Structure formats: C-alpha cells, structure tokens
Amino acid sequence: MSRxxxxxxxxxxxxxxxLQILKGAHDEGFPTLAIANRETERLYRSFKFVDEVIAIExxxxxxxxxxxxxxxxxxxxxxxxxxxxxxLDDHKKMRIPYFGNKAVLDWEASRELQxxxxxxxxxxxxxxxxxxxxxxxxxxxxxxxxxxxxxxxxIRDAQDxxxxxxxxxxxxxxxxxxxxxxxxxxxxxSPLEDQLEIMSMDRRYETNVDSLGRIPAAAQEGMDVSxxxxxxxxxxxxxRESMLAETYxxxxxxxxxxxxxxxxxxxxxxxxxxxxxxxxxxxxVMEISARxxxxxxLFIDGSPYSYxxxxxxxxxxxxxxxxxxxxxxxxxxxxxxxxxxxL
Length: 343
Ligand code: ATP
Prior knowledge:
Layout (H helix, E strand, L loop, with lengths): L8 E5 L4 H10 L4 E6 L3 H5 L6 E5 L9 H5 L3 E3 L3 H6 L2 H6 L9 H7 L1 H10 L7 E2 L9 E5 L9 E3 L2 H7 L7 E5 L4 E10 L4 E14 H4 L4 H4 L8 E8 L7 H18 L7 E9 L5 E7 L14 H7 L5 H14 L14
Helix pairs in contact: 1-13, 6-7
The site of adenosine-5'-triphosphate (ATP) has 19 residues, from strand 8, strand 10, strand 12 and strand 13.
C-alpha cells in the first residue's frame, strides 16, 4: 500500500496501547489518528508515526466526535480504555468501522457469561463461592470494576472473611486462591486465514504480593502484612515449550466456542487469556480480555513467538494492521469488522 493514498486511517484513543497500534498501522502503510485529551495531546503529537491528533476534553466525550469520524474513511481499533471509558451502549451505537466483534462484549462484561464461555471451552477455572459460609480454603475477594487488581483481598478462611470482607458494600466475587505463576497469553486469531497465532506472553509485577516471598515466612509472622495485587508493570516470559501446546489448545477452544455463542464471526483479532499455573502444570484461567492488552506493549519490536512466525518485528498492534491490510487487498474488509460498521 502506498502511504496515504486515500486509504482508511487507523484511529484509536490516546492511551493504553495506542502507541503500539498506531506504530503498527504506520508500518503497514496506513495513515494514523490518535484521539487524545488535553493532557495527552502533546505526547501523541510528538511521535512521528502519529499523523493526526484530535483532542477532546475527556475520553468519555468520545461519542461527541463520532459523527465527525463517521464521515471519514476511518477504522477504529479498540483497546482496554475503550471499554473503560465508553459504555456497551456507546460501543454498539457507533457505526464507525470497528476492528472486532461487539457481540463478544456482552459475554466478556458479565462474569457469569464469561465463566460459561470459558467452561464450555474446557478451561479450568478457580472455584467460585456464593457466600462467606461456603469458604473451605484460601480465597481471593475480587471487587467488581476494580482495575489492575486494586482492592483485591487474600482471605484465609471463613472466619477471616467474616472479620475483613463480610461488611464490604461493593459487589465482589469470592474465588478460590490459586497459588502459582501468573501467565498472560496474548493471541491473535485471523479470520482471513482461520488461524490462531501465539503473539507473546507476559507476567505482571504486582505490589506487594510479588515481594512477600523475599521475606521468610517465619519473619512475616506477626508483621500484619496482607498481600495486595496492584499492578505496577509487566515482564516478558517465554514458556517451557512442553507447555505451549496446551496454551494453543486453550486459545483455539475459546475461539471455537465464541463462534457458537457470539454469532458466526465469534472472537477475532487480538485477545488474552489470563492464567495462573500451578505446580502440576495446570492452567487456571482467571479471565479473558477480548482485545489487545497492555502487556503486549512489551513487544512493540516483536516477541520470540512472533519472530518465529514473521522473521520481522511484529507487535500485536502491527498484526492487527496487517490483517486489515490483507482484508483490504483481498476485498474482505467486512470479515474483520463488526457488523455495525458502515463502510
Ligand atoms: P485487569 O482488569 O487489569 O486485567 P483485574 O482487576 O481484572 O485486572 P485480575 O486480572 O482478575 O484483575 O487479577 C489481578 C491479580 O490478582 C492477578 O494478576 C493475580 O495476581 C491475582 N488473582 C486474581 N485471581 C486470582 C486467583 N483466583 N488466585 C490467585 N490470585 C489471583
């Protein structure tokens, strides 16, 4: 594709993984647009691969410029901040060509539906408890709407729950506490090629839970310190190769089931399965994110896995743009856009 030849502009909100998405789009020959706010405007303008910046007061005001964007040849690539700032309704009302299947959003947003989806894909999920009295093992209490693990509580037993969590006003789920290594697997499913790829993997670095192991258990006794799960960063991981086949199987089954529950297009593009691996090599799945996740920002230059497939730097953001480019070249754009997209 020659640069800026009247083709589609790739646009996204200026936060989360916008730099990766727009760099990838630029490298694949698309013009790029960042929708920034007053604070981030200067930052996004400073990157040479960002061709245009539209600044709005607050990200929540995005719906106010949708009309303007709908008049142009634009494709929106959503990321975590879209879900954080725009309601499901805002998403569904939007007619701008949208990379992804919006029907997946309902299955992702409801913890109940998400569990059904993942169970049908034969993934192992931590046990969930309906009330404090049922608790018969260590659990984690997860507040609804918490971001980045904020406010999560490790609870030892039913008694501990009664003292520390029973009074909580917010909605929460009580989940079996899985002791193991957290591994976040980043996938890309290409509807054009009907092919799943493992793009990269990361583990999060969380304060203070990842530091507790540095203090011997005996010394912790009486210290009155409880673990917290606030994410401060991500580090890259390459997995034991003998475990890769199971990660691939999990990704394939999640895509397969999505085609049964979210319409024939199912889940496509980037997604992430968040797991904890126990000493018996079992992957317990905490959650699925049905789009590009921030952990992929570690791999703007590609990962060991994407290198195996591409032999050139291939971030998830760039892979998205490559899919859009391939779709345009083969006259299949509709296959990689939500059905609400007006072209
Ligand atoms: P985000 O939306 O940013 O992905 P979140 O608020 O949904 O984050 P989770 O990813 O569900 O949070 O969990 C945050 C952290 O809490 C995990 O990285 C993990 O360390 C811990 N955690 C969550 N569920 C469990 C569990 N069942 N057992 C043990 N630890 C858990």
